[in-house]
Structure formats: C-alpha cells, structure tokens
Amino acid sequence: MSAQRMTLQRRKFPARLPLRLAAAIALLALPLGGCGTGALWDKFTQKDDTFVEEPADKLYNEGLYLMNQRKDNKAASKKFEEVDRQHPYSEWARKSLLMSAYSFYNAGDYDSCIGAATRYVTLHPGSPDAAYAQYLIAASHYDQIPDISRDQGRTEKAINALEEVVRKYPTSEYATSAKAKMEGARDQLAGKEMDVGRYYMQKRDYTAGINRYKTVVTRYQTTRHVEEALFRLTEAYMAIGIVGEAQTAAAVLGHNFPDSRWYKDAYNLVKSGGLEPSENKGSYISRAFKKLGLG
User: Fold this and answer.
1) Fewer CB atoms near the end CB (10 Å): N or C, the chain?
2) Could you give the dihedral angle defined by the CA atoms of residues 42, 44, 47 and 52, in that order, rounded to the nearest 10 degrees?
3) Percent of the chain with pLDDT over 90
4) For residue 230, is pLDDT > 70?
5) What is the pLDDT at residue 15?
6) Residue 168 DSSP SS3
7) Using CA atoms, how far apart are residues 28 and 38, in angstroms rounded to an integer?
8) Which long-range CB contacts under 8 A does 261-264 form with residues at least 24 apart?
9) What is the pLDDT of residue 148?
10) pLDDT greater than 50 at residue 5
11) How far is C-alpha 205 from the geometric centre of its chain's CA atoms?
C-alpha cells in the first residue's frame, strides 16, 4: 500500500504588536508622516561619519516612520538601535529595543529578532511587554520550521520557545496562540517520525520502523499522523509475527478513529491473518491512549 506523505500546513506566525503599542505607534508616527517625505527620506539616509547625539524621541519617531511609512524595516531597526546606543538608560531605549526586535522580525532577520527580544526579556522581565518579546522569539523559530525531509532542530527550538510563553505568561493574550502553534510544531515532529518510519518499512527493516511509529503513538497522540502510525504498527507487527501487538494497534485505532480509512485497512489486514482486532490493556499502545483519556 502506498504511503501518503503529510507535511505541515502552517501560516506565518501572527506576531502583531499589542494594541496599546500599535495605537501609540500610530500617534507618534503622525508628525513625521505629514512632512515632505522626499526631503525627510534624504535626511534619514544621508551618510555622515560625524557623530551627532540626537534626542531619543526624535530617533524613535524616525524609526517608526521608516518602519510604517517607508516599509524599510532594516533602516528602522538601525534607528531603534541608535536610541539604545545613545540613550541606554532611558525609557525610550526600552521601547526601542522591543521595536527593533519587531522590525527585525518583519524584515525576516530572525536571528537578530531573537537576539533583541531575548535581551529585552533579560533586561525587562517585569515589563508588560515582556510576554510579547518572548512571543517574538517563538515566532522567529516557528517561521523557520523546515520541511519534514530536513533536520527538525529548529522545530524543537520553536516548541521550547512556545512552551516558555505559556509557562511564563499563562494569562497573556499570546498563550492561547502559542498553544495552537505548539500543536502545529508537534505535528511536524510526528511527520518527521512517520517519514523515517516509511523509509525503514520500504527497506523491510520492520523493527526500526516500529520504533518510529511507537514514538508517534506515545508522544504525539493528538496529531493528525497518529491514525496512520497505528495502522503501520499493525502492518509491521503482522509482518514479523507479533500478532498480539498488531491486534492491539488495530483495536485502539478502531476505538478512537472508527471512521478512519486507516482503520478499515488495519481491520482487513488483521482479518487476512485469521484474527480479529483485540486490545491488550497492558500494551504500550493501549497505555499511551489511556494516559490521555483517549482509550
């Protein structure tokens, strides 16, 4: 039976600014937005090696202008970094650090975003915007999750960062979204296990394949890959003659997903051996689902 490759379908992680910050940005950007944009742009971008200290609020608003009006996130991040460099102990520096992380994220410079957001959380852990900074860290990892054919180290980092959002800021507006994205990342890890498991099955290395499907069943029961994993366990155990586990896999599949096409295939496979799906309550397959209240 041909295996279906399943890949993560995900949208870009929503990293919108908190409403109060977005409103503040809109207000602060108005004075700059009403200026002659051509001359103002030339002033922002002209090269001058002479250091001139500028007011923090001026630099900050120039950064907002570049980000919002010019859509030049790279240039904006430099303005925000300049606030921190020239006025490191000011309230503007704290705001600019967060905005530099946000502009880096919008520019797709995820490593720089992670660096700036991590620094913000470290320096200002009690700030109302610390949750958002942690969210940006998770967003940067999540948006770099690779195809299941590649190493999933970035996926692991995304899950860790998302768990940090939920653990540190459980009542924040980002916790719910972080939980949903964790499921997407977990689905990706399960997909990787399935991909490798199918490879071993094609090589008739059933034991290696079983180990991969076992991981899906015991760690990723809530992902969309678990139905196929239970069928593949039925298939692999039947192939090596461990019929008790094959019967259990088929029975658990039927109990939890009675309308699944994978259950129909598992049922027919067990029946072809003169057997019936029958659950062994002591099997790791049964215990994995009982633990989650799914069995």
Assistant:
1) N
2) 130
3) 79
4) yes
5) 66
6) helix
7) 19
8) 262/227, 262/228, 262/230, 262/231, 263/227, 263/231
9) 92
10) no
11) 32
Q: Of the candidates 128, 131, 127, 40, which has an alpha carbon nearest to the alpha carbon of residue 79? A: 40
Residue type, 239: A
- At which residue do the structure tokens 């072809």 appear? 272
In whole angstroms, give the CA distance from residue 295 to residue 184.
Answer: 23
Residue type, 294: L
For the chain, what is the radius of gyration of the CA atoms? 26
pLDDT single digits (tens) 279-288: 999 999 999 9
pLDDT number for residue 202: 97
Query: Residue 253 contacts by C-beta under 8 Å, 6 or more apart in sequence?
Result: 227, 230, 231, 234, 260, 262, 263, 266, 277
Mean pLDDT along residues 55-65: 95
The stretch 135-149 carries a mean pLDDT of 95
pLDDT at 63: 96
d(CA 30, CA 201): 62
The one-letter amino acid at 37: T
**Residue 39 has what pLDDT?**
54
Q: Do the beta carbons of residue 32 and residue 65 sit within 8 Å?
A: yes
Helices assigned H by DSSP within the chain:
19-33, 37-45, 56-68, 73-86, 91-106, 110-123, 130-142, 153-168, 175-202, 206-219, 226-240, 243-256, 261-272, 284-291
Structure tokens at 126: 């009690």
Of 133, 132, 101, whose CA–CA distance to 19 is shortest? 132
Burial 231-245 (b: 16+ CB within 10 A, else e): bbbbbbbbeeeebeb
Do 193 and 245 contact (CB within 8 A), yes or no? no
Task: Report the alpha-carbon distance of residue 137 to residue 155 in Å, rounded.
Answer: 13
Residue 178 contacts residue 155 (beta carbons within 8 Å): no
What is the separation of C-alpha 192 from the centre of its chain, rounded to a whole number of angstroms?
15
pTM of the model: 0.79
Secondary structure (3-state) at 170: coil
